[in-house]
Amino acid sequence: MALDGVKEAIRVSKPYKMVSRDFKEEDTAVEFEGVTIGGGDLAVMAGPCAVESLEQCLETARAVKAAGAHFFRGGAYKPRTSPYSFQGLEEKGLEILNAVREETGLLIVTEAIDHESLALVEQVADIVQIGARNMQNFSLLKRAGRSPKPILLKRGMSATIEELLMAAEYITSEGNQRIILCERGVRTFADHSRNTLDLSAVPAVQAVSHLPIIVDPSHAAGRREQVLPLARAAVGVGADGLMVEVHCDPTSALSDGPQSLYPAQFEQLMCEVTKLAALVSKVSS
Ligand code: PEP
Ligand code: MN
Q: Quick one: which H or E segment has residue 67?
Protein backbone atom coordinates (compact mmCIF):
# COMPACT_ATOMS: atom_id res chain seq x y z
CA MET A 1 0.00 0.00 0.00
CA ALA A 2 1.46 3.36 -1.01
CA LEU A 3 0.96 6.66 0.80
CA ASP A 4 1.47 10.01 -0.88
CA GLY A 5 4.88 11.44 -0.04
CA VAL A 6 6.18 8.16 1.46
CA LYS A 7 9.06 6.70 -0.52
CA GLU A 8 9.92 3.81 1.75
CA ALA A 9 8.64 2.34 5.01
CA ILE A 10 11.06 0.37 7.18
CA ARG A 11 9.53 -1.85 9.82
CA VAL A 12 11.66 -1.74 12.95
CA SER A 13 10.38 -3.96 15.72
CA LYS A 14 13.32 -3.62 18.10
CA PRO A 15 13.55 -1.13 21.00
CA TYR A 16 16.63 0.36 19.33
CA LYS A 17 16.10 1.57 15.81
CA MET A 18 18.76 3.73 14.22
CA VAL A 19 21.60 1.49 15.36
CA SER A 20 19.90 -1.61 13.96
CA ARG A 21 20.57 -3.33 10.66
CA ASP A 22 16.87 -3.01 9.83
CA PHE A 23 17.45 0.72 9.65
CA LYS A 24 20.84 0.61 7.93
CA GLU A 25 22.05 -2.60 6.36
CA GLU A 26 25.65 -1.76 5.55
CA ASP A 27 28.38 -1.58 8.20
CA THR A 28 29.14 1.83 9.67
CA ALA A 29 32.76 2.83 9.23
CA VAL A 30 34.18 5.57 11.45
CA GLU A 31 37.04 7.20 9.62
CA PHE A 32 40.20 8.73 11.06
CA GLU A 33 43.41 9.85 9.52
CA GLY A 34 45.29 6.64 8.80
CA VAL A 35 42.71 4.13 10.04
CA THR A 36 39.03 3.32 9.72
CA ILE A 37 37.08 1.54 12.45
CA GLY A 38 34.49 -0.78 10.96
CA GLY A 39 35.82 -0.65 7.44
CA GLY A 40 37.87 -3.84 7.50
CA ASP A 41 40.96 -2.46 9.27
CA LEU A 42 41.97 -3.77 12.68
CA ALA A 43 42.20 -0.55 14.71
CA VAL A 44 44.40 -0.75 17.79
CA MET A 45 44.20 1.56 20.81
CA ALA A 46 46.93 1.16 23.40
CA GLY A 47 48.30 2.96 26.41
CA PRO A 48 48.14 3.12 30.18
CA CYS A 49 44.98 2.91 32.23
CA ALA A 50 45.61 6.39 33.59
CA VAL A 51 47.60 9.42 32.49
CA GLU A 52 50.14 9.74 35.31
CA SER A 53 52.84 12.05 33.96
CA LEU A 54 54.18 13.43 30.68
CA GLU A 55 57.20 11.12 30.86
CA GLN A 56 55.09 8.00 31.51
CA CYS A 57 52.78 8.84 28.62
CA LEU A 58 55.48 9.77 26.14
CA GLU A 59 57.57 6.70 26.87
CA THR A 60 54.54 4.42 26.53
CA ALA A 61 53.21 6.25 23.47
CA ARG A 62 56.51 6.00 21.61
CA ALA A 63 56.59 2.26 22.28
CA VAL A 64 53.00 1.57 21.19
CA LYS A 65 53.43 3.71 18.12
CA ALA A 66 56.59 1.85 17.12
CA ALA A 67 54.66 -1.41 17.52
CA GLY A 68 51.93 -0.16 15.18
CA ALA A 69 49.11 1.15 17.39
CA HIS A 70 46.85 3.80 15.85
CA PHE A 71 45.47 5.39 19.02
CA PHE A 72 46.96 6.28 22.38
CA ARG A 73 44.58 5.56 25.24
CA GLY A 74 44.85 6.90 28.78
CA GLY A 75 42.37 8.27 31.27
CA ALA A 76 42.67 11.81 32.60
CA TYR A 77 39.38 11.27 34.45
CA LYS A 78 39.20 7.89 36.11
CA PRO A 79 35.91 6.38 37.34
CA ARG A 80 37.47 4.41 40.20
CA THR A 81 35.48 1.95 42.28
CA SER A 82 37.05 3.33 45.48
CA PRO A 83 36.98 7.07 46.21
CA TYR A 84 40.44 6.67 47.76
CA SER A 85 42.05 5.36 44.54
CA PHE A 86 43.85 7.68 42.13
CA GLN A 87 41.15 9.73 40.38
CA GLY A 88 43.21 11.02 37.46
CA LEU A 89 45.11 14.21 36.62
CA GLU A 90 41.99 15.77 35.06
CA GLU A 91 42.78 18.93 33.03
CA LYS A 92 46.51 18.47 33.47
CA GLY A 93 46.05 14.97 32.06
CA LEU A 94 44.32 16.37 28.98
CA GLU A 95 47.28 18.72 28.42
CA ILE A 96 49.57 15.70 28.55
CA LEU A 97 47.42 13.87 26.00
CA ASN A 98 47.64 16.88 23.71
CA ALA A 99 51.41 16.81 24.01
CA VAL A 100 51.42 13.08 23.19
CA ARG A 101 49.47 13.67 20.01
CA GLU A 102 51.74 16.55 19.02
CA GLU A 103 54.88 14.56 19.54
CA THR A 104 53.83 11.14 18.24
CA GLY A 105 50.97 11.86 15.84
CA LEU A 106 48.92 9.15 17.56
CA LEU A 107 45.17 9.71 17.75
CA ILE A 108 43.81 10.10 21.28
CA VAL A 109 41.04 8.18 23.02
CA THR A 110 40.18 9.22 26.56
CA GLU A 111 37.25 8.91 28.91
CA ALA A 112 34.66 11.45 30.01
CA ILE A 113 32.89 10.63 33.26
CA ASP A 114 30.31 13.43 33.44
CA HIS A 115 29.04 16.49 31.57
CA GLU A 116 31.79 18.71 32.93
CA SER A 117 34.62 16.44 31.84
CA LEU A 118 32.97 15.70 28.49
CA ALA A 119 33.06 19.40 27.60
CA LEU A 120 36.83 19.39 28.15
CA VAL A 121 37.60 15.93 26.80
CA GLU A 122 35.87 16.56 23.48
CA GLN A 123 38.24 19.47 22.82
CA VAL A 124 41.25 17.16 23.02
CA ALA A 125 40.15 13.63 22.16
CA ASP A 126 39.78 12.09 18.72
CA ILE A 127 37.40 9.61 20.37
CA VAL A 128 35.51 10.26 23.60
CA GLN A 129 35.22 7.13 25.73
CA ILE A 130 32.17 6.38 27.86
CA GLY A 131 33.13 3.68 30.32
CA ALA A 132 31.34 0.56 31.47
CA ARG A 133 30.18 2.24 34.68
CA ASN A 134 28.48 5.00 32.72
CA MET A 135 26.90 2.90 29.97
CA GLN A 136 23.46 3.65 31.34
CA ASN A 137 24.11 7.23 32.40
CA PHE A 138 21.39 8.41 30.04
CA SER A 139 21.98 12.10 30.56
CA LEU A 140 25.68 11.66 29.70
CA LEU A 141 24.74 9.54 26.67
CA LYS A 142 22.44 12.28 25.38
CA ARG A 143 25.18 14.84 25.84
CA ALA A 144 27.59 12.55 23.97
CA GLY A 145 25.02 12.43 21.21
CA ARG A 146 25.50 16.18 20.76
CA SER A 147 29.31 15.94 20.73
CA PRO A 148 31.17 16.55 17.46
CA LYS A 149 33.52 13.67 18.33
CA PRO A 150 33.07 9.91 17.79
CA ILE A 151 32.08 8.00 20.94
CA LEU A 152 33.57 4.74 22.20
CA LEU A 153 30.80 3.13 24.25
CA LYS A 154 31.91 0.33 26.54
CA ARG A 155 29.49 -2.39 27.54
CA GLY A 156 28.38 -2.25 31.16
CA MET A 157 29.65 -5.11 33.28
CA SER A 158 26.21 -6.68 33.54
CA ALA A 159 24.52 -5.24 30.47
CA THR A 160 22.85 -7.34 27.80
CA ILE A 161 23.55 -6.70 24.14
CA GLU A 162 20.10 -5.15 23.85
CA GLU A 163 20.89 -2.74 26.70
CA LEU A 164 24.21 -1.84 25.06
CA LEU A 165 22.45 -1.10 21.79
CA MET A 166 19.77 0.97 23.51
CA ALA A 167 22.55 2.99 25.16
CA ALA A 168 24.02 3.56 21.69
CA GLU A 169 20.57 4.55 20.49
CA TYR A 170 20.50 7.31 23.14
CA ILE A 171 23.65 8.73 21.55
CA THR A 172 22.58 8.47 17.95
CA SER A 173 19.07 9.76 18.64
CA GLU A 174 20.71 13.11 19.53
CA GLY A 175 22.49 13.22 16.18
CA ASN A 176 25.92 11.63 16.70
CA GLN A 177 26.21 8.64 14.40
CA ARG A 178 29.89 7.99 14.95
CA ILE A 179 29.70 5.31 17.65
CA ILE A 180 32.09 2.44 18.30
CA LEU A 181 31.00 -0.29 20.71
CA CYS A 182 33.39 -2.12 23.00
CA GLU A 183 33.13 -5.52 24.67
CA ARG A 184 35.24 -5.45 27.86
CA GLY A 185 34.04 -8.47 29.81
CA VAL A 186 31.06 -9.06 32.02
CA ARG A 187 30.81 -10.07 35.65
CA THR A 188 30.34 -13.78 36.29
CA PHE A 189 31.15 -16.33 39.02
CA ALA A 190 34.58 -16.89 37.46
CA ASP A 191 37.51 -15.95 39.64
CA HIS A 192 40.33 -16.88 37.30
CA SER A 193 39.92 -13.54 35.53
CA ARG A 194 38.68 -10.09 36.54
CA ASN A 195 35.66 -10.35 34.22
CA THR A 196 34.57 -12.90 31.63
CA LEU A 197 35.27 -11.78 28.08
CA ASP A 198 32.05 -12.40 26.19
CA LEU A 199 33.39 -12.94 22.71
CA SER A 200 30.03 -14.08 21.40
CA ALA A 201 28.93 -10.47 21.86
CA VAL A 202 30.91 -9.59 18.71
CA PRO A 203 28.97 -11.71 16.21
CA ALA A 204 25.77 -11.15 18.20
CA VAL A 205 26.13 -7.37 17.82
CA GLN A 206 27.22 -7.65 14.19
CA ALA A 207 24.11 -9.67 13.37
CA VAL A 208 21.71 -6.98 14.56
CA SER A 209 23.64 -3.69 14.38
CA HIS A 210 25.69 -1.89 11.74
CA LEU A 211 27.95 -0.27 14.38
CA PRO A 212 31.60 -1.30 14.66
CA ILE A 213 32.63 -3.27 17.75
CA ILE A 214 36.08 -3.57 19.29
CA VAL A 215 37.31 -5.74 22.17
CA ASP A 216 39.21 -4.76 25.32
CA PRO A 217 40.94 -7.92 26.57
CA SER A 218 42.75 -6.02 29.36
CA HIS A 219 39.77 -5.09 31.53
CA ALA A 220 38.26 -8.51 30.84
CA ALA A 221 41.36 -10.42 31.94
CA GLY A 222 42.64 -8.30 34.78
CA ARG A 223 45.99 -10.07 34.46
CA ARG A 224 48.51 -9.58 31.75
CA GLU A 225 49.20 -13.20 30.92
CA GLN A 226 45.65 -13.59 29.55
CA VAL A 227 45.70 -10.47 27.37
CA LEU A 228 47.55 -11.87 24.35
CA PRO A 229 45.46 -15.07 24.04
CA LEU A 230 42.24 -13.08 24.41
CA ALA A 231 43.40 -10.52 21.86
CA ARG A 232 44.08 -13.32 19.37
CA ALA A 233 40.60 -14.71 19.99
CA ALA A 234 38.99 -11.27 19.60
CA VAL A 235 40.54 -10.87 16.17
CA GLY A 236 39.46 -14.39 15.26
CA VAL A 237 35.87 -13.66 16.17
CA GLY A 238 35.81 -10.63 13.90
CA ALA A 239 36.33 -7.59 16.14
CA ASP A 240 36.96 -4.30 14.34
CA GLY A 241 39.73 -3.38 16.75
CA LEU A 242 41.38 -3.83 20.13
CA MET A 243 41.91 -1.67 23.18
CA VAL A 244 44.92 -2.81 25.20
CA GLU A 245 46.48 -1.41 28.36
CA VAL A 246 50.23 -0.93 28.09
CA HIS A 247 52.50 0.77 30.62
CA CYS A 248 56.21 1.57 30.38
CA ASP A 249 56.60 0.38 33.98
CA PRO A 250 53.53 -1.64 35.02
CA THR A 251 54.84 -2.33 38.53
CA SER A 252 54.63 1.37 39.35
CA ALA A 253 51.28 2.01 37.61
CA LEU A 254 48.75 4.01 39.61
CA SER A 255 45.92 1.89 38.25
CA ASP A 256 45.49 -1.50 36.57
CA GLY A 257 49.21 -2.38 36.69
CA PRO A 258 48.59 -6.16 36.89
CA GLN A 259 46.76 -6.18 33.55
CA SER A 260 49.05 -3.72 31.76
CA LEU A 261 51.42 -5.20 29.21
CA TYR A 262 55.10 -4.38 29.10
CA PRO A 263 55.97 -2.66 25.80
CA ALA A 264 57.76 -5.78 24.52
CA GLN A 265 54.66 -7.88 25.18
CA PHE A 266 52.57 -5.38 23.24
CA GLU A 267 54.97 -5.57 20.34
CA GLN A 268 54.53 -9.34 20.31
CA LEU A 269 50.75 -8.90 20.44
CA MET A 270 50.82 -6.54 17.46
CA CYS A 271 52.91 -8.98 15.41
CA GLU A 272 50.47 -11.78 16.07
CA VAL A 273 47.18 -9.93 15.66
CA THR A 274 48.33 -8.29 12.43
CA LYS A 275 48.98 -11.70 10.92
CA LEU A 276 45.70 -13.08 12.24
CA ALA A 277 43.66 -10.12 10.99
CA ALA A 278 44.83 -10.81 7.46
CA LEU A 279 43.32 -14.31 7.71
CA VAL A 280 39.94 -13.30 9.09
CA SER A 281 37.12 -12.08 6.92
CA LYS A 282 34.62 -9.89 8.72
CA VAL A 283 31.14 -11.21 9.43
CA SER A 284 28.59 -8.94 7.85
CA SER A 285 24.82 -9.03 8.45
C1 PEP B 1 39.13 2.11 30.96
O2 PEP B 1 39.11 1.76 29.76
O3 PEP B 1 40.00 2.82 31.44
C4 PEP B 1 38.07 1.65 31.87
C5 PEP B 1 37.85 2.23 33.05
O6 PEP B 1 37.39 0.59 31.40
P7 PEP B 1 35.91 0.07 31.78
O8 PEP B 1 34.99 1.25 31.71
O9 PEP B 1 35.64 -0.94 30.71
O10 PEP B 1 36.01 -0.53 33.15
MN1 MN C 1 42.09 0.41 33.30
A: helix 54-67
How many angstroms separate the CA atoms of 279 and 219, rounded? 26
Q: Ligand 1: does its nearest atom lie under 6 Å from the Cβ of 184? A: yes
Q: Is the CB of 154 under 6 A from ligand 1?
A: yes
CA 285 – CA 250 distance, rounded (Å): 40
DSSP 17-31: -TTBTTT--SPP-EE
Whose atoms come closest to the Cα of 49: which ligand? 2
3-class DSSP assignment, residue 57: helix
Q: Is the CB of 88 under 6 A from ligand 1?
A: no
Dist. CA 278 → ligand 1 center (Å) = 28
Tell me the whole-structure pTM to 2 decimals.
0.95
Those residues with Cβ within 8 angstroms of residue 218's Cβ, 6 or more apart along the chain or in another chain:
227, 243, 244, 245, 256, 259, 260, 261
74 lines ligand 1 (CB under 6 A): no
Q: Is the CB of 93 under 6 A from ligand 1?
A: no
As a whole number of angstroms, the distance between CA 112 and CA 202 comes to: 24
Residue nearest to atom 6 of ligand 1 (CA): 131
pLDDT digits (tens, 9 = 90+) for 89-141: 999 999 999 999 999 999 999 999 999 999 999 999 999 999 999 999 999 99
CA distance 199 to 238: 9
Query: Ligand 2 being an ion, which residues bring their Cβ within 5 A of it?
Result: 49, 256
Buried b (16+ CB within 10 A) or exposed e, 4-28: eeeeeeeeeebebbbbbbbebeebb
Query: Per-10-residue mean pLDDT for the chain, 285 residues long?
Result: 81 89 97 96 98 98 98 96 95 98 98 98 98 98 98 98 98 98 98 98 98 98 98 98 98 98 98 96 50
